[in-house]
Each structure stands twice: as structure tokens, then as C-alpha cells.
Design goal:
304 residues; mainly alpha; 15 helices
Length: 304
């Protein structure tokens, strides 16, 4: 039926962008590979820096790079997302790095890499609570199976007795998973690289103040390896990794792409052996392959 002359055109509801789970998984996995070196790099950085300095210092340097990128790209600050960006920044810029740096003082990076495999289940839970996603029964079954394997590995010890480091790793996982969901939601409306960039910039005053405050006690004659590790934590773990991770979650779904992080165990175990000379036992490899199998089986599970 034609519209009467002069009447306004009907408003059609906006259609959401079609989900691209495979592309999201692939892009998210690039972020996982970058994140996989975080714990080994943190171990190396601890040879010259304190956990507090690593937390604030890497965030301050990443904020400078992110701010310069935003200026060059002439991006305007998204005021309506200011609170969400700040919360995501606190959780991802300070929460996860701070807790994981403390944990790395008492547990090997290879152990921590598998323990943090509980992250996908936490991410899926937060995605269901306030991320607007509704994973189906099959998805939850595979997700719980993966988390159960990780918990069994942690409690069994696998030649390592559980300790206070596992508690700090749990706090790190809680901070990261909540931050992932917030940044993943934001990446649906603004590009993923802008999300992490603005999160770093909006928390930059705290990062710079913290770096200056702990400078005297947090720097202890670092060598070239420690400096390179801190640089990687700043530009890789704190910035580049989140560009791919947020992008993947935005187009593939927060809960679904979050499961890819179970594969981070492979990366962390391999890099821990290569960079730190840590022993990768058959038990560790067995758990890692079992977790990888869970991700493979759960990749097509329904997520509404």
C-alpha cells in the first residue's frame, strides 16, 4: 500500500549483523596465541620488575601507544560508553595483570596456563548474565566439561601442589572474564581496537600515577630479557591481543569465541618449555589435548 503524500516513511527495525562464528573463532584464536605468551613473559619480567610495576608500567606504555593511535586515526571519545570502558579498563588493565603477576611468583607459567582454562566457562557465564547471550544445553555441557578438566588438573597437582598461587589465578580469571564480556559488548558498536585503546586511555592517569609511585621499589636492574618481556606485555598482551580478541567476540559471539581460550593452554605450555625450560609432563599434555577436544566438539553448540 502506498504512503499518503507528505507522511513520514515507516521506520524499520535495525537488523543485527549476521553472526560469523568461524571468522570469529579464527580471529579470536590469533588473540589467544598472543595472550598465550603472557604468563611466560611475566615470569621473565619478574627478574627485573616487581608485580606492581609490571601491572602499572605495561599499562602506562600501552596507553601511550593507544592514545597516539587514536590521535592519528582522529577518533572521538565515545562518551556514552565511558563508564563501561572504565570498568573494562580496571578489570583488564589492572585486575588480570595484577593478580597473574602475583601468582607467577609462586606457580610455574605452564601450571598457570592450564589453570586459567576455566576462563571460557566464566566468560560464558557472564555473557549469559549481562552479555545478552543464551547458550544452549549442549554448549553448557561442553563448557563445563572443559572447566572440569582444568579444575581436576589443578587439584591433582600434576607434579605441582595447589597453593596460594591458584587463588590469585582464580581472581585473575574472574577479572578477565568479566572484562571480556564488557569489552565484547562494546565491540559490537565500536571497533575492537578502539575499545581496548579507550579503556587504556581512560585509565591512563591511574597507570602513570602507579608507575611513578612504585618506580623506586619496582625496578631492580632489569636485563635485556626482562625489558623485552615488559615490552611484549605492553604491546602484545595489553594491546594487540585485545584488538583481535574483541574483534573475534564481536563477530563470532562472546560465549562461543570465549571457548577458544581453552586452547591457550597449548600455547602457554609450549612457550613455557621453550622460553623458561619448564618441564611439560605427559599429564599436562594429556589434559591440554583433552581440553582441545572439548573445544572442537563444542564449536557448533547452539548459542542464542
Amino acid at each position: 500500500m502506498s504512503q499518503p503524500p507528505g507522511s513520514p516513511a515507516p521506520v524499520r527495525p535495525a537488523s543485527p549483523a549476521p553472526a560469523r562464528p568461524l571468522a570469529g573463532l579464527a580471529i579470536g584464536f590469533i588473540g589467544v596465541v598472543i595472550f598465550g605468551a603472557t604468563l611466560p613473559a611475566t615470569h621473565i619480567a619478574l627478574d627485573g620488575f616487581s608485580p606492581a610495576f609490571i601491572t602499572f608500567g605495561r599499562a602506562a606504555f600501552a596507553a601511550l601507544v593507544a592514545g597516539a593511535t587514536l590521535v592519528v586515526m582522529r577518533k572521538r571519545f565515545p562518551r556514552r560508553h565511558a563508564l563501561s570502558l572504565f570498568i573494562a579498563g580496571v578489570l583488564l588493565v589492572y585486575g588480570f595483570p595484577g593478580f597473574s603477576s602475583v601468582a607467577m611468583q609462586t606457580v610455574p607459567a605452564s601450571h598457570g596456563g592450564v589453570v586459567l582454562g576455566v576462563l571460557p566457562l566464566m566468560t560464558a557465564t557472564f555473557a549469559a548474565l549481562f552479555g545478552g547471550e543464551r547458550p544452549g544445553l549442549a554448549f553448557w555441557s561442553w563448557s563445563i566439561a572443559g572447566a572440569a578438566l582444568v579444575v581436576i588438573f589443578s587439584l591433582s597437582g600434576a607434579d605441582i601442589d595447589p597453593g596460594i598461587g591458584d587463588l590469585w589465578l582464580g581472581c585473575a580469571a574472574l577479572s578477565a572474564s568479566c572484562g571480556y564480556v564488557i569489552s565484547g559488548k562494546l565491540a559490537r558498536t565500536i571497533p575492537g581496537w578502539e575499545v581496548i585503546s579507550w579503556a587504556l586511555v581512560i585509565t591512563a592517569p591511574l597507570s602513570l600515577a602507579g608507575t611513578l609511585f612504585v618506580w623506586d621499589s619496582g625496578v631492580s636492574n632489569p636485563g635485556a630479557a626482562a625489558l623485552m618481556a615488559l615490552l611484549y606485555l605492553s604491546l602484545g598482551s595489553m594491546f594487540a591481543g585485545f584488538i583481535f580478541w574483541n574483534w573475534g567476540m564481536a563477530i563470532g559471539g562472546i560465549a562461543r569465541v570465549g571457548q577458544v581460550q581453552l586452547l591457550q593452554s597449548f600455547v602457554t605450555l609450549g612457550l613455557s618449555a621453550l622460553l623458561l625450560g619448564e618441564t611439560v609432563t605427559p599429564v599436562m599434555l594429556g589434559f591440554a589435548f583433552a581440553v582441545g577436544f572439548v573445544v572442537w566438539c563444542g564449536r557448533k553448540a547452539k548459542v542464542g
